[in-house]
Amino acid sequence: MEFMAAAAFGLEGIVKQELLDLGFEAKAEQGGARFQADLTGAFLANLHLACADRVLLILGERKVTSFEELFEFVLSLPFEQHLPKDANFPVSGNCVRSQLMSVRDCQSITKKAIVERLKRKYKVGWFPETGNTYPITITIHRDMARVTLDTSGDALNKRGYRTWVGEAPLRETLAAAMVRLSEWTPEQMIYDPCCGTGTLLIEAAFLAQNRAPGLHRAFIMEQWHNSDRAACQALREEAKALYIKDAPLHIAGSDVDPEALSLCKKHLRQAGLADKITVQQMDLRDVRLNEPRVCFVTNPPYGERIGDQKKAALIAQDLGKLLKSHDQARLCAITADHSFERHARQRADKRRRLYNGRLECEFLVFENR
Fold first, then answer.
1. What is the total count of domains within the chain?
2. Residue 118 carries which DSSP code?
3. Residue 269, domain CATH
């Protein structure tokens, strides 16, 4: 079957590489990366992908320009291969730059077509929807309709360690991508001088420990009638065996905000990392590390996000000074501030466009050689 590992814009290539590392053949495209697998393979992807949002089973794709075409397209799909008689199958939708732009109508027509298909196949006139949930999405982009079945349930950024995000949260999947894009290796020190609630630090620890991001959470597909639960449990046990709980961690951070730091410590406890990662309240201007080749990775406040551009400019300036005060260090920062380099008084050696939520940002890498 064909699956899509959905990803935020800019992360498609990283997700493709994650799939390749898991042994799948994968192809990146806008919105994620496609790969071929069975349901057990989809579980493996759910368990290990750090930067993807969801794993979606692609049921069908076709160009549609009318509600009649949409109905006939959905009716042609083999839902009976996936949905039992008692399946609860909510339908969500998304329409972008298409002739069919009413999401509500597209959802309703998709639901009616699925019911009609199942009525014909199961020879019944009514479906109670009292069983397990099979979330279906109809997406229409530039008149190309795609129907998918969500195997993940809660989005994959829901690792289980974060219960409250504070102001301007950094999504776990983006944090994991930033760690990978920083080219940090676990032998180096990684330090976040604006660590907030600790997401970057925890995602770095998961990478260093070879800990599957989905190790301690469930996926909606595990309850489906056609999932091989024994095979999925075996994959989970295999992931537990690969998890190096006692791996040495050269990871630390600080923040000037005591409330954010309190949340950070709570999240570290919930991730099982309280005694492995050091965090403290400190102004970034006071950070001095006696470590070679430190990798600073951070999501600093920026004016569009916190409404204080002057403060954001000073933080960028202080980050530039922090980099220059550490020989052979690297600074990696995500920002929506187009003047970040000017404030930091250094041109980035690398840059990449990413999105923090809906906010377009740049991921900048600076080297102090």
1. 2
2. H
3. 3.40.50.150
Q: What is the CATH number of the domain that holds 103?
A: 3.30.2130.30
- Flag whether 160 is in a domain: no
Rounded-to-integer distance, Cα 37 and Cα 31, Å? 19
Residues in contact with 196: Cβ distance below 8 Å, sequence separation at least 6, in sequence order: 166, 168, 169, 170, 255, 257, 260, 263, 264, 299
Instruction: Tell me which amino acid residue 279 is.
Output: V
Check whether residue 249 and residue 299 sit in a common domain. yes
In which element (H, E) is residue 172 found?
A: helix 172-181
Average pLDDT, the chain: 95
User: What's the rounded Cα separation, in Å, for the pair 43 and 31?
Assistant: 20
What percent helix, strand, coil does the chain show, rounded to 5? Answer: 35, 20, 40
Query: What does the block give as tokens for 57?
Result: 């089973």
Q: Taking the alpha carbons of 180, 183, 185, 186 in that order, is the dihedral positive or negative?
A: negative
- E runs forming strands in the chain: 2-6, 26-29, 32-36, 54-63, 91-96, 136-141, 144-150, 190-192, 251-255, 278-281, 295-298, 330-335, 350-356, 359-367
β strands within 142-205, DSSP E: 144-150, 190-192
Contact 280, 258 (CB under 8 A): no
Q: Looking at the structure, tell me whether residues 339 and 308 fall in a common domain.
A: yes
pLDDT band for position 288 (cuts 50, 70, 90): very high
pLDDT tens profile 182-218: 999 999 999 999 999 999 999 999 999 999 999 999 9
Backbone angles phi, psi at 340, to 5 degrees: -55, -45
